[in-house]
Structures are given as C-alpha cells and as structure tokens.
Specification:
heterodimer; A: 1014 residues; alpha/beta; Dimethylsulfoxide Reductase, domain 2; Barwin-like endoglucanases; six-stranded mixed β-sheet; 31 helices; 19% strand; globular; B: 455 residues; mainly alpha; Formate dehydrogenase/DMSO reductase fold; 70% helix
Chain lengths: 1014, 455
C-alpha cells in the first residue's frame, strides 16, 4: 500500500477485517496492515474508503467535508510510523570519478522485442535519470526512440513487481530455488520431457548459450519463443525467397528510391532509429543543387512513414499483395499477376517501376512486418531484380539466436499442454495470457500445467496465473547482452542495483542450470571470455577488450557480415487468393505503448498518437468514407465481430485510412498493468487469432448507439460540404491559410528557392521604434527545425518529459486542455480526406525577441536573458496565466493542480536534479534546456574558452533520430544553426506578429514523380 | 405646481417637508425593523454566500484546476466576473460624482444606494483577480512594496495598472460614500432611542453638529471627492480594458476597447441600479423619493450607453473585415458561426435588441418592464465579457492549440456566490444605514419648495 493511503483517510478496520477474512488474505500470513491491504479485497475496501485523489466532477459537499475530516484524522495514523534510525557517514574513500553534481554517462543497450538499441544513460549520484542514444552504436547513432526514452521511468515504476510471490503469498528466492530444484530433479529421469521454456525473441548470445546449456541438461525439454509483435512474416518471407532464414538490413543512405509495402520503417521495428537517420540524410536539401530521395508508400493505416511519402496510396492490408505483385511483374519478376487497388492512379505502377528501374542498385523495396510472407518474398525478388541486394539491401545471418516461426512455436506449446505433455512451464519475461492469440485460449491452457513459473517486470495477467512469480530486474539494473538490428552486440551494463530484489533472466537461468548465486556480471563476462578464447571475437587481452566494449557500448566486429543469398530458382509465387471483400480488420502495435508492455508508463500513455493525437486510449480507425457508409461519428461505440469473437471499441475517423477496413491497436485493455495502464482502452488481442495475426476479412461492424469519451491533444473539426460529405479539417485549412506549414515540391523549390521566406519587414531587418538589444557579446541561442526531416516520431516529446521533470496529468486533465508537454508535434492535413498529405510540425517555445508573454506578467516572472532566452522564474510566478493567453504559439503550460507527483518515493530519484519539480499554481515552459546551457557554459568558463558549436544539445535535439532539430549560438555565423537559418527555406511561425521567433523552421519539400499525377 | 408638469415628472413627490423625508428614511432603519421581505431576501443572500465559501474552499484546497480554465483558455469565469462586477460599479460613481458636478438634481435620491452598490460591486470584483491566481497567497507581489530582494512589480503589465486602478477606485468610493453619510449619521444619532445605537451612530458621525462650518467643509470635501471620482468613471474601466487591448489576442487587441468598455460599464451599472431601485422603492414605499422620473432618466442613460455599445460591436465587426487581418476575420466568423455562436447571439439579443424597448416612454415608466429589461441587459453584459474573453482565447493563432472552455460547478458556485456576497452586503446596508441621503433630500425639499413658491 502506498503512503498516500496513510495520509488520505482513517481506516475502517471493521470493513477491512470483513474484507480480509472473506478473501485471499485469510489464507496467507501478513506482517503488517500495509501488506494486508495489498489484497484486492482490502485494497478495494480501502479504495472505497479513501479514493485516490478527488475527481473534480464528482466532488460533493459531503466529499469535501469527508476529505477535510479525513486529512485531519489521518495525521494520527502517519505518526504511528516509526522511521528507522539512519546514520549518515561521508565517503571515507570517494569512489573514482564520482563528483556530486556532475553526472556520469554509461553505455548500455535496451532490448526491444529482443532487438537492442545502444544507449548512453545519464547517472546522477548512482541513479539513472535520462537515456540518450549511443553515438557509437549503429542502431542509434546518438538518437533514441520513445520506448528507450521512457524506459527509465519503467525502471522506477512503483507498480513493478517487488517481491517473489508463491501462490499469492510472499516467497523468497531461496525458497524458489529449492522448490524449482525439486521439480527439475523430478524431471531429470525423463530428460526434462515435461519442461517447457517460453521466452520472447532471444538475440542475446549469453542467454541463448545458457538456454542451450539448460537444454543440454534436459534434452527432451523444449524452448518456445513468442513475441506478440514479432517478425514471423519477415522470417517466413526470407525462407520463401531464399530457402533459409536471413536478416535483412537496409542501407537507406544509399537509396534514391524507396518503395514501402506497408513497411513503417520510420515508426516501429528493429533499426527504426537508424533507418530514419539514413533516410532523411538523403533528403537534406541545402540549396537548389541538392537532390532528394523519393519515397512511395502503400499502407492501410496512416503512419509516420506514410506521412513522409512523396506518393502514398492507401489500400487495405490485403490489397498490398496485389499491388506488390503488379509492381514485381512490371519489374520482370515472376509474380503471378496481381490486382492494383483503385486508390492507385492509372499508370502509377508503371511509372513507379520505371523510377525503380532507373535507380538500379540505388533503390529499396521494403515489406512491412504485418504483411504476409509472400509480400516479403516479392520484395526480396524485386530487390534482386533491381540489383539492390548487396547495395542498399544487405542480407546477413539471422540476429535471433534461434530463429523460429514464433506463432507456430506457441501453437506447439499449447498443443503440448493439451496433450498433457507439459509438467513445468517456465515463462521468462513474457505476458502470453494477455497477448497470445485469442484462439489459443492461453489462459485456460496455462492452468492445465502442473507447475508454472513466471519471471517478469510486473505482476501481470500471466504472473497471477503462475505458481511462482519472480520479479525481473530491469535492463537498467542488470548485466546482459543483446544484438542490434544488424547483429552488433552490446553489453547491457546496469546503472543501479536492482531496486526491488529482482533478478535478470540470466541469473534466473543460472539458477535453473544449477549455478544459483552467480551474478549477471560474471555470467555475461564469462561467456564473452570464452568467445574471445574461441576466437569469435579477436584482438588483445580480454580485460582491455571488455573495458573497451563497456566504454563504447558495442562489441567490436560483431555486426553480422553480409551474406550472399540468391532467390530460390523455384521461386514462383502461387497465384493470389481472390479478394475476400467485405470489411477487413487490421491489427497494429500501438504507436505509443507498443505491444502493451509499456502500458503502465504515463509518459507514453499521455503521448499523443500520430495523426489522431489520441491519448490514454486506443480506438478503431476508420476512413472518412467508411465512417459515412456506416453512419459513424467520432467516438461512436461499435461492436466489432471477427471470426466469432466480439470487441466493443470506440471509432476514430482518420483521414488517409484505407476504405473498407478497420484498424485496431494492440497494447491496451490491460487488466493488470499497474495504476496507469490497467483498464485503459480496449484489448484488441481479444480479436486476434493465430490464423489472422495481422489482418483478415469478414469483419462485422455494428453501432451500439453508445458514445465513448476519446481524448485528443489536438482537435480537428472535419467540415461538411453541402452534400454532407466531409471535405477537410478546419484546423488544417486555417494552418495552411496562415502559412504555418509551408511546403513545395523539389521542382518548385528549384525555381523559387525563396518560396517560404518571410517578407523582410517581418524579420530581424524590420524597423523598430526601440533600439535593438545588443547581443553581439557572448552567445545568442537559437534553433532550427527542419520540417523536411521531421518524421513525427515523438521521441523529442518523451525526451523533454524525461529531461525536464514534466508531469503526467491523466486522461481527464488532458481532456480539459491541461497537458504539460513543453514540446508537441502538431499535425495537419492537406488535400482531400481520402488520401491527404499529412504534415508534422514540432512546436516548442519560439523564444521570441519581442516576447508577448514577457510584458504582460505583473510580477516579472518571465523575462528575457541577455542570451535571448525567454526565461521562466517559477519562484516568482503567482499564476495569473496572462502570459499563456498572450502567447500566440500556446507553448506555455500551467500547473492547474499539483500535477507533479510529490508523494511516490520511487519517483524521487528519477527526477533530473538540475530541473525544478514544479508546484501547483505556476506556469512553466520550454527553456531550451537552460540547465544544459548553463552546464556547458560553466565548463567552458572553467576551461577558459567559449562554448563550442554542438557542445550543447537540447534534450529534444539529442534524441531526434533525424537531426531535424538543431540548436546553437546564432551569433556565430559558422555555427550549424546559423548556417541552417541562412538557408532559403527558413521561415518563422507567425512572424507577421513581429514576435521575431528564435526557433525557426525549414520548409517542407516533396519530391513527387512528375510522371504520376496525384 | 407648474402647469403642464405631470406629478411623475417630479424628482420628489409633492407634499414633503424636512420632517417627513427625514422620518421616512430614518424610520426604515430605526423603527420598522426587519420585515419579512428583508428576512427572506437576506436568507437567500446568505445561502449564496455559503455557496461562495464552499467554492472558494475547493479552489484554495485544490487549485484553479477546479475551474474549467485550461490552455488555451486560461481565463474564464473569474475574469468575466471581475470585469462585469467592476463595470456595474461604474453607475454608482457616475451618479454620485459626475452627476453632482453636472448639477443633476435627480441623482439625490438614488446616489446613496448606487454608491453602496459601487462599493459592494468593487468588493466582489476585487475578489476575482485574487482568487484566479495560481498561488493566491502571493497576491501581494503585485503591489509595489520595498522588499529585501529588491523586486518590484513589472510595471509594463496592465494587471499592475489594474491593481492601482481598482484599489484607488475602492478607496475613493468608500471615502466619498462615507463622507456623504456623515450628516445622516448625525441625524440617526439624534433620532435613535436606544443608547447603544446612539453611541454607534455617534461614533460614525464623527461629532457632526450641523454647524455652518461643518456644512461648508462637508460641501467642499464632497465637491473635491466628486472631482477626484469623476475621472475614475472613465479611467478604471479604461484600465480594465487594457488587460485585453495590450495583449495581442485577436478579439482583444483593439483601440476601440476603452470607450467601449466605459460605455458598457455604465450600461450594466444603470441596469443594476434599476434592478435594485425598483424592488426597494416598492418594498419600502419610497415611490415618493424614487419617482418615475428617476427610472425614466436611468432608462434613457441605459439606452444611450446601449447604443454606444451597439456602435462598438458594429465597428468591431467592420474593422475585423476591413482591416484584412485574417486572424481578426476568423475570430469574428468564429463568434458568428463557431461552437459558441449561441452565446454570441444571445448576447446580441440581450444587449442590442432588448434595450430597443427603451425607446418607448411607456416601457421606461413601467417599473416592472424596466426591471425585466435591466436583468436582460445585465445578463447580456456578462455574456459580452464572456464572449470577449473565452471566444477570443479558444481559437487564436495556432489551430493546433485550439480548445474549448466549459465552466465547472465551482465556476458557477463562485460566480453565484459573489452575487450572494453582494446581496448580503446590500441587505445589511439597507437595514443599518439610511439608504437615501436625508440631508440631500432636505436640500431637494428646499429647492422644490422654492420652485413651487416661484411658480
């Protein structure tokens, strides 16, 4: 029970006793009232007695009096807690490199669905506070994605499982070791025939080695892998094309033309961060001589990749295959002929094929993980036909330690359970009860297993059905290793000792292997020492090597070498199945909470989803035309019936969605995620079957007549024309009318390089009655945001939350317009609603020279620094909110309540100690990460030099995978930001107001194929 | 009585002498006691005041989040109420100061309670800038006081000007009101039977003996304060309008605001005076003193200021389109057709259409019709402030930041609660103080008698 309960009310002991005796608590020992209160019965009794926080709408006079009385009564209960006596002793011997106030950075890597991304983690006094990308890691190049950024919050998550649980009671690791040892010993005579291991995708060499060792002990045991958002299709596609599993790495920095067959390579999946960088590097237009790559995307659901496309054609997921066959045929690949969906303009396929042909060896065809194997195989065939293999498309050996068809693997496990062959099931790090396909009825099958053990970060849906639940150590707490998208191995270095007595999967396997007590450090290190000995990784002595690997965050020379594979001679796709027609159901991992494992992270729940800016929920996406067909309005509650299963979900009308299909997002509807994620949204896994894991026909959609409350950060009001057809969004219309987003084609840019420029009277050249401030001495900070590079991935938003201790406010407050994001990604549409162009625009404080917020503050709490920064002094703010009213960009955020969590102890160390945690009633805003500026300036001053260009990176800039955000000193004409600002595409937002923003934009460019008419 | 002048054209019904006017007014306080109307009204007022306290406790406990304010609409009911209340106050000052300088005799019988209304309205108004702060306990940082940190208010901010304008206004209004009360306190002291009451009124009367030198100084001080107050009629609401015009929000940033706000203030203020005067004269049988001529005059002033306000609306709309400013143009279209269009058109109905009835003499001289019209106009003026604040903010420059504002229960509680505060103070005023200036009425008796003699 959290401390908050103590403070919020007096215990109704009678009620608690009744609840405790009725329920689980009567069957187990308890040490304290607190622990007793952890049982659901008592927790719910407590919850009724003192609800957490008083919901504003429901507050009655009685509630108020009760809560006032309760807070007084409660003080008594708090006083009963006797704090242990603590002795504070200074360092006798100060640890090396350890200076209070000076952060240290450690290289590590985060496994995401088994695939690693290299990171540098900032540590203050031994506690990790901020995650950054590792510039030396091929999958990161210094950038990080939203999941990596939020992972530090996950480590401190107070809802993580904290104790070993045995059948609902407290257990210990020692008891577990004895108990599981007995079970394994019983299996030993059977060679482990009844033992099953279930893991996610494993790329970790050490873990794979341990599992092999385990299987060597129990030769008849089986190892199953399952990832809910896995890459089965890609693996099967490779097998179909080449007859073997291969891993495919795309070199988009070499590609002039890219065709994405629903591959959201800028949005999710392995290598996304690197692909985004490589892709946008080919789009960095400096002047009229610059060239740009060209992206074609076909997809069912609007994605960040689709928004970057020069040509985007929406089509149902099932239609992509026909399109792929048509393109393949046009490229001379045996493809069996396919139907081109009507959304693709006439002649486009031929023009696309010509464009690809014209860039032989410098193009790439990519297939999405949700597309069936045949599409992957066709993509491989096309790449081979175009001579891309070995150029832009590199095949390597698989990065998985043991590549399998994971869905099949899970099916086999369930079949074995049904056949009564499974005696002991050990689940390492997964949550299959929640995310296994619905037709496998995994929860029911699981209960048939005699002995079930679960190791996981949370006491989740699977954990409660297992005899043993073991708290897993987070990757920031444990040693490990992991392979990146190209096979590069990183050693996972812990930043902190496990907060909650958790153990890593390595230590757990060591326990299974009879090496209980061996530390993760020894396990990983010994594995690599052996590798060095066996010559797998070459070079000097191991100690030096090991130190270098830890320091660099990568194990040198472990990127998998290119492998020459050729299309099977017999490759000839079977003729396409006939289009089933009807309404199609499509599954997608949620853009912010992924497969659901990040569901308890407030940063990600509050993060608006691309193009809908939906928060704290998932929804069923339908196109405008489909919505009209079914007479649907936004947030209508519909009943989705798919292959005999039903789900009720709210509808969201999304411009650019393909017609006649409904996309639902996985990762929501969690039952045991924690206080943030439980009960939020709708569980789309309930409709997902192993036959149709990604899409399938025959969806039945019925309106229930009810409405659901969906909350978006940015509104858009679709406007009806005279016939009642929705024609465009009012907000987008206004945005383009006001010149907020400026865009041209590459050709237009070449003939009119100044198309986006603001008139000189609106820029710094403008006349003024007042003498300009003299910034020439010292620094003057500024920022440039390249809209041509921004993919709208939201990493900057999460990075800002992490760096600046921003508060999470919850669905109701977001609905009230009180989110606390200092940086946001605005989205606008242009063109018809069926297939609009989609635009992202990152908006943060413009640091206006003539800042409208400054002169209206009655107490001078927001003011201008001599370096041009528009500063906010929290201590001085009385909260008139006048500054926000007068900010034309609406980038200021106000603490309408005490939004920051001041109560949860585990969140204290998460906070960046360089940034104030804000209190109730004060305004806050983007500061250009002034704490980083100050740090660099102090360092420069100590070293008696000026701050170098690039020395200061704002948090949003540092994590940006495409380097769309550049910050620096605009007094220095040679700084990167000054050179960007000198480009002809530069413009400012609302410069006609004479605010003279310091944050400026580089206009968006598109590079459509002139042969294709929209 | 002069030929051709109907009785209702008089500022004082015939047949009154010094004694009758004094007795009539002082008896309300000293003899009649608390009537059932008073008790019923006071109970309602106290009930609303409790609602106010409830809302404020919630506000202080949890923060301004209990209101519907948000980003982009960071000001909602609180500032609407502030501007509305402070506008209402203006009629009192206009009557007591401006009309005094203009030597308008008809002000005599209404100025006392109109001034009381001013003070109570400003008190209500003054609550809101304080309550709406995120950290209201630090409100004093808006005052220029010497502190050890050497920090001062930021004098470019109109909110600081507001602090000066409103506090000056409150101070001068109280002084002026109290000064006018001094001779009447003397009368009350002299007429009171109970010793305790004599002592209280005696202290309040500051030793008033009615000597010639007292009267001379009293007249001079009154004239001086009237001279000081008169500019305040114009300046206070001008400064309040600066809260908006100084900002760059479309719908706020407009040079027309100062005169438009002043006219609107007087407009709503007279509506409030009428709302109070009509029931008062009926309940306390003051028709002899607050005659139909008074009502007629106030209705005419309402009509005139209402037409100024109408003109301002028309010019605002015209300029939005004529200026070619796309943001202003959108703002105006959004008022006409946007999500709050119903509020806007209700405002037009209340402020533009309803006062047209005042062209008719029969309406102006029918107390109850006038009462209803005054209520409609007050509603309209409140809506006007709501439209200016919320409709301008909710869709300004960046469409991505557009939002909506919905008042919460606490918004309403605090708004209705200040009406309770106002009414409570007003009921106490009516019960404890002479609600019409006896000394000035005696002047009036003297003057009307002189006129009759002349005629």
């Amino acid at each position: 029970m959290s401390d908050r309960h103590h403070r919020e009310g007096k215990l109704d002991l009678v009620q608690i006793r009744a609840a405790a005796e009725a329920g689980e608590a009567s069957r187990r020992f308890w040490r304290s009232l607190d622990e007793l209160a952890e049982t659901p019965e008592v927790a719910s009794a407590l919850h009724h007695e003192f609800p957490r926080g008083l919901p504003r709408a429901a507050l009655t006079r009685r509630d108020l009096l009760k809560s006032m009385g309760a807070s007084a009564a409660l003080a008594g209960l708090t006083a009963c807690t006797k704090l242990p006596i603590e002795k504070i002793v200074p360092y006798v011997r100060q640890p090396e490199e350890f200076t209070p106030g000076v952060p240290l950075y450690y290289a590590t890597a985060m496994p995401q669905s088994g695939v690693g991304i290299g990171l540098l983690v900032e540590s203050h006094l031994g506690r990790p506070t901020k995650v950054e990308g590792n510039p030396g890691h091929p999958g990161s190049l210094g950038a990080a994605d939203i999941f990596a950024q939020a992972s530090v919050l996950q480590m401190y998550d107070p809802d993580r499982s904290q104790v070993v649980k045995h059948v609902g009671r407290l257990g210990t690791w020692e008891e577990l070791a004895a108990d599981i040892g007995n079970n394994l010993d019983n299996q030993r005579p059977l060679q482990g025939a009844g033992i099953r291991l279930l893991t996610g995708t494993v790329t970790s060499p050490t873990l794979a080695d341990q599992i092999q060792a385990f299987l060597a002990q129990f030769p008849s045991a089986r190892w199953h892998q399952y990832e809910p958002v896995g890459r089965d299709n890609a693996r099967a596609g490779a097998k179909l094309a080449f007859g073997e599993y291969v891993n495919t790495v795309y070199r988009l920095d070499r590609a002039e033309v890219v065709l994405s067959l629903e591959a959201d390579f800028l949005g999710c999946g392995p290598g996304t961060v690197r692909y985004a960088r490589d892709f946008t590097d080919r789009r960095r237009v400096v002047d009229t001589r610059s060239t740009m790559n060209r992206l074609y995307v076909v997809e069912s659901t609007p994605s960040n990749t689709g928004a970057m496309a020069d040509h985007r054609w929406p089509m149902r997921a099932s239609e992509v295959e026909g399109f792929a066959r048509a393109v393949a045929a046009a490229l001379g690949v045996k493809a069996g002929g396919g139907a081109v969906p009507p959304s693709v303009p006439a002649g486009a396929v031929a023009a696309l094929a010509r464009d690809l042909q014209a860039h032989r060896g410098a193009s790439a065809v990519m297939a999405g993980d949700a597309q069936p194997p045949i599409v992957h195989a066709l993509a491989h065939a096309m790449n081979e036909a175009l001579g891309n293999a070995g150029q832009t498309v590199i095949h390597t050996a698989p990065i998985e330690a043991n590549p399998v068809d994971e869905l099949q693997s899970l099916r086999e496990l369930v079949a074995a359970i049904q056949a009564g062959q499974v005696d002991t099931l050990i689940i390492i790090g997964g949550n299959p009860v929640y995310n296994a396909p619905a037709d496998l009825s995994f929860a029911d099958e699981l209960l048939k297993v005699r002995y079930r053990v679960h190791l996981g970060l949370y006491e989740d849906e699977t954990a409660v059905l297992c005899h043993w639940h073991l708290p897993q150590a987070h990757y920031l707490e444990a040693w490990g290793d992991v392979r990146a998208y190209d096979g590069t191995v990183s050693i996972i270095q812990p930043l902190i000792a496990p907060l909650y007595n958790g153990r890593s999967e390595y230590e757990f396997l060591a326990l299974l292997n009879g090496q209980a007590g061996r530390s993760g450090h020894d396990l990983v290190r010994d594995y690599w020492r052996r590798q060095l000995g066996s010559g797998t990784v070459g070079g000097a002595d191991f100690e030096t090597q090991w130190e270098t690997w830890l320091n660099n965050g990568v194990v040198d020379g472990t990127a998998l070498p290119p492998k020459v594979v050729s299309l099977r001679a017999s490759f000839e796709p079977a003729p396409a199945a006939p289009d089933a027609g009807g309404l199609e159901l499509i599954f997608r991992p949620d853009p912010t909470v992924g497969d659901g494992s990040y569901a308890n992270l407030g940063w990600l729940q509050e993060l608006p989803k691309p193009f809908t800016s939906l928060t704290w929920d998932n929804a069923a996406y339908v196109s405008v035309a489909t919505a009209e067909r079914f007479h649907l309005e936004r947030a209508d509650f519909v009943r989705l019936r798919f292959q005999g299963r039903e789900l009720e979900a709210p509808v969201f009308i999304v411009p650019g969605q393909a017609n006649d299909c409904v996309t639902v997002f996985l990762g929501y509807g969690r039952q045991r995620a924690g206080r943030m994620g439980t009960g939020v949204g709708f569980n789309a896994y309930a409709l997902r079957t192993s036959a149709n894991p990604w899409f399938g026909p025959g969806l039945d959609l019925r309106k229930t007549g009810q409405k659901y409350h969906l909350v978006t950060l940015q509104n858009d009001h679709l406007i009806n024309d005279r016939e009642g057809r929705k024609v465009f969004s009012e907000e987008s219309e206004a945005a383009f009318a006001r010149g907020l987003v400026r865009v041209a084609t590459l050709e237009q840019f070449r003939s009119h390089p100044d198309f986006a420029a603001d008139p000189p009277e609106e820029t710094t050249d403008a006349q003024s009655l007042y003498p300009p401030y003299d910034y020439q001495h010292g620094y003057q900070w500024g920022m440039s945001i390249d809209l041509n590079a921004c993919t709208g991935c939201n990493a900057c938003v999460v990075a800002c939350y992490a760096e600046n201790n921003n508060a999470v406010v919850g669905k109701e407050q977001v609905d009230d317009g009180r989110d606390m994001a200092w940086i946001r990604v605005d989205k606008y549409f242009r063109g018809g609603l069926d297939n609009p162009e989609m635009y992202n625009q990152v908006v943060l404080c413009m640091m206006c020279e003539n800042a409208p917020c400054e002169y209206v503050c009655p107490v001078g709490a927001t003011l201008h620094s001599p370096e041009g920064l528009n500063l906010m002094v929290y201590n001085r703010c009385v909260g008139t909110r006048y500054c926000s009213n007068n900010c034309p960009y609406k980038v200021r955020r106000f603490n309408f309540y005490l939004f920051s969590d001041w109560d949860t102890p585990s969140l204290y160390p998460l906070r960046n100690p360089d940034v104030t945690v804000r209190s109730r009633g004060v305004m806050e805003k983007c500061t250009y990460c002034v704490q980083r500026i100050q740090e660099a300036k102090i360092r420069a001053e100590v070293e008696d030099r000026v701050v170098k260009d690039g020395e200061i990176q704002t948090a949003c800039q540092q994590t940006c995978p495409t380097q769309a955000i550049v910050f620096g000193n605009i007094n220095d004409p040679n700084s990167r930001v000054s050179r960007l600002k000198a480009q002809s595409r530069q413009y400012g937002l609302l410069r006609d107001l004479n605010t003279r923003p310091r944050t400026t934009y580089l206009a968006k460019l598109r590079n459509p194929n002139p042969e294709i008419q929209a | 009585m002069p030929v051709g002048i109907e009785p209702q054209d008089l500022e004082l019904a015939p047949g009154h002498n010094y004694g009758t006017v004094t007795d009539k007014i002082s008896d309300i306080v000293l003899k009649e006691g608390t009537g059932k109307w008073w008790k019923a009204g006071f109970a309602v007022a106290i009930a609303l005041l409790i609602v106010f306290h409830y809302g404020v406790v919630l506000l202080m406990t949890y923060g301004v989040g209990v209101w519907g304010v948000n980003i982009p609409v960071a000001w909602g009911f609180a500032i609407t109420n502030f501007v509305w209340w402070i506008g209402i106050g203006h009629a009192g000052t206009l009557i007591s100061a401006f009309l005094l300088l203009m030597r308008q005799r008809w002000r005599t019988s209404i100025n006392r309670f109109a001034e009381a209304m001013t003070i109570f309205a400003v008190a209500c108004a003054g609550m809101f800038p304080l309550l709406h702060l995120g950290r209201p306990w630090l409100f004093y940082w808006l005052f220029p006081y010497p502190d050890t940190m050497g920090t001062w208010p930021q004098f470019r901010s109109p909110l600081v000007w507001d602090v000066f304008a409103v506090s000056t206004y409150l101070t001068v209004s109280i002084l002026f009101w109290y000064l006018g009360l001094i001779p009447d306190f003397g009368t009350m002291r002299d007429k009171a039977k109970s010793r305790a009451v004599k002592i209280v009124y005696g202290i309040l009367s500051w030793g008033w003996r009615g000597s010639a030198i007292h009267w001379e100084r009293y007249e001079m001080a009154g004239l001086l304060l009237a001279g000081i107050s008169t500019p305040l009629v114009v300046s206070v609401h001008t400064v309040v309008s600066f809260d908006f015009t100084i900002a760059i929000v479309p719908g706020w940033h407009s040079t027309i605001f100062p005169p438009y706000f002043v006219a609107g203030a007087i407009y709503s203020g007279f509506a409030m005076v009428l709302t109070l005067a009509i029931p008062l004269r009926r309940w306390y049988h003051l028709e002899d003193f607050v005659t139909l001529k008074h009502l007629d005059n106030m209705a005419k002033l309402m009509l005139a200021t209402g037409m100024i306000v109408t003109y301002a609306y028309v010019m605002e709309t015209f300029m939005a389109f004529y200026s070619g400013n796309p943001y202003d143009r959108y703002m105006m279209l959004n008022r006409f057709f946007g999500p709050y269009a119903a509020v806007f058109w209700t405002l037009i109905g209340c402020n533009l259409i309803a006062p047209q009835a005042l062209w008719f003499r029969r309406v102006r001289r029918s107390p109850w019709l006038l009462f209803v019209d005054a209520l409609i106009i007050q509603t309209g003026m409140w809506l006007e402030r709501f439209v200016i604040i919320v409709l301008s903010l909710h869709r300004d420059y960046l469409p991505s930041a557009w939002g909506m504002y919905y008042p919460t229960k606490v918004d309403w509680e605090v708004f209705l609660g200040t009406i309770g505060l106002f009414l409570t103070l007003f009921y106490l005023f009516v019960r404890l103080l002479p609600m019409i200036s006896m000394s000035e009425l005696r002047h009036l008796v003297h003057k009307t008698q002189a006129e009759e003699v002349k005629a």
